[in-house]
């Protein structure tokens, strides 16, 4: 909970000595695992989650659901079993630094009978929550937030959420919308949610939410832009098979692009709920080749790494790794459309501007992004700000720049605890 900090684990990023060629097997998508857990917890019977992500974000989500009375059996090697029970407080939920927990669990906690308290890591208290708290209040939920509108917060559930219509400004995070929709079928009147404000980022994550809701049996209408309607109804227990995490694969693909090697993500499905087209386009624009085959999804470096101009709003969580690639490219890059990532695990725009400048890049910071000019690069101490994707960015720069030392690689446990070992193995194959 707030105030508890894990011991820092400094780490020297290994440099590549030649092209990296490897097939990687990565754990399940964080976003899909989080949604499967919530939908399973609200289901009409047991669910099975095959190939879940086993990392801090999903482990804490499981613990939070258990605290609310849901049985989550995570003892299976690659198979979790979720057995719903009556949701009840009192309970305390540690959200860690997970946006998916702090935005997805309070709407479910509102369905519990009793008091549920939420808090997390020190920086979790800075992450935006105001719009989802206000929306829950407008839907009849009693909820207390900190004076700044976020964590710590207390949901005083009565066992019933009236639901109905509500307007929200979700420009700060798509997770406000996803969080409300995931529990909405259990609201007495369902939910009609209308977004008003600057565009909602991360559209593919919203589609993942509506796909998975429908797969669980919910009736969802998203035919009007920025309006979502979920009818009240039953969510069915079912088996979820989680896809390999595409965002977690990004640094591994980057290693192929930087070294002129080839990295295949094994187990990639023919039909994906993750933004594979957007990710493929970015790597292609950077100069790499992306192909799909029975072996998986492959990114092949061509020896050319081009600077790019890109609006990353749909895939904003890739900004740190794409920025690292921009540092190593043959010309300047401009990455825009991601103002809201100032509210991610850290203010990623400010953090990238500071750390990439330390390794020698020319960086201009905009309200909604960065301009990055490759420069004479050098090793440096790279602050990771408890942010797994800042660690990934540092590792990518370190492939080509000896002496990049991360202040902490332990933060990668948020979504991929085995990152340091997998990365070292990968680079050893160069
Ligand atoms: O719903 C999800 O699983 C996510 C949505 C996105 O959040 P934002 O819309 O806040 O960027 C993404 O960046 C995050 O990593 C995961
Ligand atoms: C923004 C991210 O995470 P979260 O789910 O905590 O918002 C991320 O993983 O890049």
UniProtKB/TrEMBL annotation:
Pathway-wise, it operates in: Metabolic intermediate biosynthesis; chorismate biosynthesis; chorismate from D-erythrose 4-phosphate and phosphoenolpyruvate: step 6/7
Residues annotated as binding 3-phosphoshikimate = 30-31, 35, 173-175, 202, 317, 344
* UniProt-annotated location(s): Cytoplasm
Q: What Gene Ontology biological process does one annotation of this record name?
A: aromatic amino acid family biosynthetic process
Identify one Gene Ontology CC term for this UniProt entry.
cytoplasm
Gene3D superfamilies, per database record:
Enolpyruvate transferase domain
Where does the protein principally reside?
cytoplasm
Catalyses which reaction(s): 3-phosphoshikimate + phosphoenolpyruvate = 5-O-(1-carboxyvinyl)-3-phosphoshikimate + phosphate
| Residues the record marks as active site | 317 (proton acceptor)
Q: Which UniProt keywords apply?
A: Amino-acid biosynthesis, Aromatic amino acid biosynthesis, Cytoplasm, Transferase
The highest taxon in the source lineage is Bacteria
Q: Does the keyword Secreted apply?
A: no
- A Gene Ontology MF term for this entry? 3-phosphoshikimate 1-carboxyvinyltransferase activity
Task: State the InterPro entries in the record.
Answer: Enolpyruvate_Tfrase_dom, Enolpyruvate_Tfrase_sf, EPSP_synthase, EPSP_synthase_CS, RNA3'P_cycl/enolpyr_Trfase_a/b
The text of the family note is: Belongs to the EPSP synthase family.
What is the designated name of this protein? 3-phosphoshikimate 1-carboxyvinyltransferase
Q: What is the lineage of its organism?
A: Bacteria, Bacillati, Actinomycetota, Actinomycetes, Micromonosporales
Gene symbol here is aroA
